[in-house]
């Protein structure tokens, strides 16, 4: 007696991973947090700054926080009361200080109703610096890991796919990179070159690819012997196509985990660099930079220590949680527990 | 097994050469001509102007005016004889300055690595045995949080709360021995030393507790799934014997290789920690060298730390082979 | 004939109360002393789980023995404490597994692993232990035993490792050996050697054996009695010759028919049993074979057929077994 067996709708691989990921509520929360940080970074000018979000002036609507309006060139936004007077309607960002304005009358003041997070030794509003620093930290994290990703996949892929002598040489390169004291190396290179945000991203990326490369190499070594790769060769696909279209997608999953942890690490490293004075040059705000000031004033200016420290901690923890969540979601042995 | 050791050592040679090539490349990055040098006054860092004298010295030291392959050859020869030149700051031979400070950093790092393993491995094992219990969840949570704390921030917190000032004054925060340490007995000197390095060691080790214990837990859980564990139970061995004899050794073996990952990171972390706690090690030396653009010193420290790390990795690899009878050369990776 | 082991109405479930399902249902097997009992069936039918239940090696969670008794030497093994059970494992009841190389610990020598078993259940000094191990290695036909004593598992072939496993299983002279697919992972020629070894040992020592396999060839050669399992239930059991000459269950017939016959080259198609083995979450109601059975009638969908005697030393769980005559 035969019965018609229904074909179950198969879920795609990544769909399944996401379903599994969602089971860990903490990881979902972390992802949500990161998304919020992302929003803060994108809308930083709308959250903190002197320029109005919306302003109706002479019967036209402008958004100086977002655009450099030609008609408003030369307008002085430093006095918000004045702007209020000349506009018929205006909405300012919730934090009304920019990240770079000095106010020597309120140097090192504790958090109060004006400066929610207090001020630093130049009277700059800490909250505003934190908000604007988000973009710096996140972008350094992502770009650095992006660079590491590209280098890692290329080198790891070539090593794993071609094997033999190519693998030998590239593996030696891995080993060399691993033996170098990376942090010291970064400091050295940054000392030799002018520290700019791009140099930092490049250096972090150029020194952090070994983990990803190793993973990719391992997977490529394994997968290139699979039958379906042989079949592709028989069909005439060339090497590059095989590597990037057929093997790579299957090797990406653990790399995703490594990359997420990598972003966390990059943010930590960047804050350490800023702390030591080798981070993004002033006056660009960065979390580590606020912390580096706190060195001198630790005895009483607790707000300079707590807020940026907390920000770094929460961000790094979130990325680690997301990475962890992905790792658990991708592990077939943990499914359906 | 012997052949593996020999092969492994031979393999290290190209890596050694590679290190010299890369450090050579870094020298090339150093400004040797009067390029604009931003004074980072805002950050409060003192840096010296690149004077003509320094440029000339650098040129002579590294032969920067000669063709590049000659430069490299000069560099290689100098490394072989440990002649890294004289420090720009005080004109003492760089190698002497390093010799003075190296033992301290080494001691600190070796103690730290031991500590990490002694604490993380049992935590990982307990974590695996009590997987998903309340205790395990709390431990994982705490360690996870610890892992995300920036080391310099922790250092500052420790100094603030435990190092005198407003709060408790339990630990010293400066240097590695008290001012009057010369008059101490050996034993007292030892305790004084340990007391001084407590806070720095905490800062060097806390993050690795989390990662190593996590690896240990994973390794143990994996071993528990192996067929030979089932066999051990089927033979009538007590659960205690199964875990202590059959599971433990197999699960710790892969953890040994993680030293290769911890070591370089720790040495890098030494730079920050030594500077914050004023520990006279090569981390602090290196940082000061960078601040004062003392190129010979910088290059020497980079090269030597890379070499030392390589030695550390080799030791870990060889130790692995001694412990696991399965290793043939190809099977290692 | 005395039974060394009696499994009575054993049922095993996997999972918890919300999403649990039964993988072994109401299985009863009797092992007479000195006989080889074969349990045969396809992958997933529950034969391994049944075997693991005897000495309680099931991973719990998620597997749970929900009912039944396992009587060994007048004791119900399921009621014993862990400590009591431990004294029986490797000592009175031994088990060998499918993957011999990975079933041995890679960081200890095989001499140490066999010796350890002896040491666990006997007071013995090192020298005596080593002698005994070498004796056992000779017993299982391992050449050059003195040298092999210090070998590691990865230095030996699969067949040799299985012999080591057998040596380890026998070292304390157990009454019962449970062999779970001992040759499935081995080459055919090696397989023959292992089976012959088990056979000889049974003849020489009078050991009782439960042999689990999906290979009818092995079963026909060495088993005295055979139990056929399907979807967690026993569907037929009989003396060796009776099962092959006069099968009385549609599943058994289907299995026997699907074995390709070298002599019958005229038939171009392999006779298959239509359909697929159901997964334990979806076992059909009534007779679990009903959706694949050529002889299915209405009753099969509603009630579970129980094992009934069809002739001496032959039982079948089919409502229409009486109509089957080959």
Question: Which helices and strands occur, and which strands form pairs?
Answer:
The complex is a heterotrimer of chains A (337), B (333) and C (326).
Chain A: H1 13-22, H2 25-42, H3 44-47, E1 54-57, E2 60-62, H4 80-86, E3 89-91, H5 126-162, H6 164-179, H7 182-192, H8 197-207, H9 210-223, H10 227-234, H11 239-276, H12 287-297, H13 302-330
Helix pairs in contact in A: 1-13, 2-5, 2-13, 5-6, 5-8, 5-9, 5-11, 7-8, 9-11, 11-12, 11-13, 12-13
Chain B: H1 2-29, H2 52-62, H3 68-80, H4 94-129, H5 134-147, H6 151-162, H7 186-224, H8 227-234, H9 239-256, H10 259-277, H11 282-291, H12 295-323
Helix pairs in contact in B: 1-12, 4-7, 5-7, 6-7, 6-10, 7-9, 7-10, 8-9, 10-11, 10-12, 11-12
Chain C: E1 3-14, E2 21-32, E3 36-40, H1 47-54, E4 63-72, E5 75-76, H2 82-88, E6 93-96, H3 110-121, H4 126-139, H5 145-148, H6 158-170, E7 176-180, H7 188-205, E8 208-213, H8 216-222, E9 225-230, E10 233-239, H9 240-245, H10 250-258, H11 298-302, E11 308-311, E12 314-316
Parallel strand pairs in C: 3-8, 3-9, 6-7, 7-8
Antiparallel strand pairs in C: 1-2, 1-4, 4-5, 9-10, 10-12, 11-12
Helix pairs in contact in C: 3-4, 3-6, 4-6
Any overview of this molecule?
The complex is a heterotrimer of chains A (337), B (333) and C (326). Chain A is elongated and about 75 Å long. Chain A has helices spanning 13-22, 25-42, 44-47, 80-86, 126-162, 164-179, 182-192, 197-207, 210-223, 227-234, 239-276, 287-297, 302-330, and strands spanning 54-57, 60-62, 89-91. Chain A has 13 helices and 3 strands, in the order αααββαβααααααααα. Helix content of chain A is 64%, strand content 3%. Chain B is an all-alpha fold. In chain B, helix 6 (151-162) crosses helix 7 (186-224), helix 6 crosses helix 10 and helix 10 (259-277) runs antiparallel to helix 12 (295-323). Chain B is globular and about 75 Å long. In chain C, strands 6-7-8-3-9-10-12-11 form an 8-stranded mixed β-sheet, sandwiched between helices. In chain C, a hairpin with a 6-residue loop joins strand 1 and strand 2. Chain C is globular, with a radius of gyration of 21 Å. Classes of the chains: A mainly alpha (337), B mainly alpha (333), C alpha/beta (326). The interface between A and B is large, with 47 and 58 residues.
